[in-house]
């Protein structure tokens, strides 16, 4: 495939050798994977069907987009933002799955009509929700992108895509909340996610998974360019850059900052409402309704201790450890930069 996207990225098919090597440990989605250059972004081939629509997406004033790499706290932040904007008094129905109330605008690359039937536990209920929100629309044209267009204002959405694949005018109209997390915690949480979700279906070792993460051989990689693009925009009045570790350490302080950034002007009681509603315990019942490809019970928000992972990683893979420590130091520099 030799395709050029509206964003200017060239689409390159992954080599047969690479596909064969990776398929020994995981399912590579319906139609394989592609690399977008520049950037070397790694996505399912199906992303190319929606890439131009995402790049040309019509964000409007009042929209809020939560961004960040997977397992960095984006779902936690999404629940916080949605609750603050739509349910600060906890008197609205917030029991719909988060991917319906605040969809991932890129997620159609994971769930085409065939994958919906094979990975969603109740596909009929899922498609019925779509038809109610998007009457007259077709599933084949993208469920999540069309749901996001039909949301009531203020719309809240999420993406793991880098800013170069989004509209260049994004920050002119839309408030962006970017959340970043220590990459060592990201890679452990991502490992469990890839093992638990059917359309990832990772069966390899943790040690190999760390290698894939560092070598940018996993979906959504590379990690650092995605984060640094947001960091370079942190001084834009429509960008709020927050670290997962800071949110966890002092959520009251971070909610106050978020309240000011969003212009929600919530009372202290309303801010206190947002925390339990969006905590791991509060989110879990609603997320259990989602049933998108989860093979086993998944813990939301649980912190995994990478140091307790067994295997030769801690004995022999000194190079990998050095790189991960380097990454952690870089996060700390970001955290304490002015």
Please give a structural write-up.
The protein starts with a strand and ends with a helix. The strands form 2 sheets. Strands 1-2-3-4 form a 4-stranded antiparallel sheet, with no helix packed on it. Strands 6-5-7-8 form a 4-stranded parallel sheet, with helices on both faces. It is globular. Residues 295-306 and 308-318 have low confidence and may be disordered. The protein is built from 16 helices and 8 strands. The longest helix has 19 residues, at 318-336. The chain has helices spanning 16-22, 47-55, 74-86, 98-101, 113-119, 123-133, 143-150, 170-173, 183-196, 206-214, 223-231, 244-249, 251-262, 268-278, 280-288, 318-336, and strands spanning 2-4, 10-13, 33-37, 41-44, 64-67, 156-159, 175-180, 239-243.
Short description:
Helices cover 45% and strands 10% of the residues. The chain is α/β, with parallel strands linked by helices and 338 residues long.
Keywords, separated by commas or semicolons:
single chain, 338 residues, alpha/beta, 4-stranded antiparallel beta sheet, 16 helices, 45% helix, 10% strand
């Amino acid at each position: 495939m030799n395709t050029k996207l509206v964003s200017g990225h060239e689409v390159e098919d992954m080599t047969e050798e690479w596909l064969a090597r990776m398929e020994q440990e995981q399912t590579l989605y319906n139609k394989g994977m592609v690399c977008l250059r520049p950037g070397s972004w790694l996505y399912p081939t199906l992303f190319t069907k929606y890439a131009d629509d995402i790049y040309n997406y019509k964000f409007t004033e009042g929209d809020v987009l939560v961004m960040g790499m997977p397992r960095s706290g984006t779902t936690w932040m999404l629940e916080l933002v949605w609750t603050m904007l739509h349910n600060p008094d906890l008197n609205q129905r917030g029991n719909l799955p988060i991917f319906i109330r605040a969809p991932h605008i890129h997620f159609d690359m994971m769930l085409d009509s065939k994958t919906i039937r094979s990975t969603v536990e109740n596909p009929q209920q899922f498609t019925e929700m779509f038809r109610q929100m998007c009457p007259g629309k077709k599933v084949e044209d993208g469920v999540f992108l069309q749901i996001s267009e039909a949301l009531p204002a203020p719309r809240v959405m999420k993406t793991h895509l880098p800013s170069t694949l989004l509209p260049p005018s994004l920050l002119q109209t839309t408030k962006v909340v970017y959340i970043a997390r220590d990459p060592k915690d990201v890679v452990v949480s991502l490992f469990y996610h890839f093992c638990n979700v059917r359309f990832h279906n990772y069966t390899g070792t943790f040690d190999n998974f760390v290698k894939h993460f560092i070598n940018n051989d996993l979906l959504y990689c590379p990690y650092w360019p995605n984060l640094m693009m947001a960091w370079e925009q942190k001084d834009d009045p429509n960008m709020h850059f927050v670290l997962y570790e800071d949110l966890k350490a002092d959520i009251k302080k971070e909610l106050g900052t978020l309240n000011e950034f969003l212009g929600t002007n919530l009372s202290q009681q309303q801010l206190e409402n947002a925390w339990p509603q969006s905590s791991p315990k509060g989110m879990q019942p609603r997320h259990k309704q989602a049933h998108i490809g989860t093979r086993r019970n998944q813990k939301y928000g649980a912190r995994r201790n990478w140091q307790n992972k067994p295997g030769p990683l801690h004995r022999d893979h000194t190079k990998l450890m050095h790189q991960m420590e380097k990454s952690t130091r870089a996060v700390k520099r970001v955290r304490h930069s002015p």
